[in-house]
Amino acid sequence: xxxxxxxxxxxxxxxxxxxxxxxxxxxxxxxxxxxxxxxxxxxxxxxxxxxxxxxxxxxxxxxxxxx
Length: 67
Ligand SMILES: [Zn+2]
Ligand SMILES: [Zn+2]
Hints:
binds zinc ion, little secondary structure, two-stranded antiparallel ribbon
């Protein structure tokens, strides 16, 4: 019954979420749990500062250093 489809955005991971707006199947990485939308809809709705579709980039620094 349940066929494991790839993410419609990256087409690499197994689908775990369905966008409540456009209905496309996306993986965990391309789903915004806060809004229940895929990253495309989330950026379309308006989330300033988070519109990077490239999963390879991680703006958040791992290192924690203080002044
Ligand atoms: Zn994906
Ligand atoms: Zn969507």
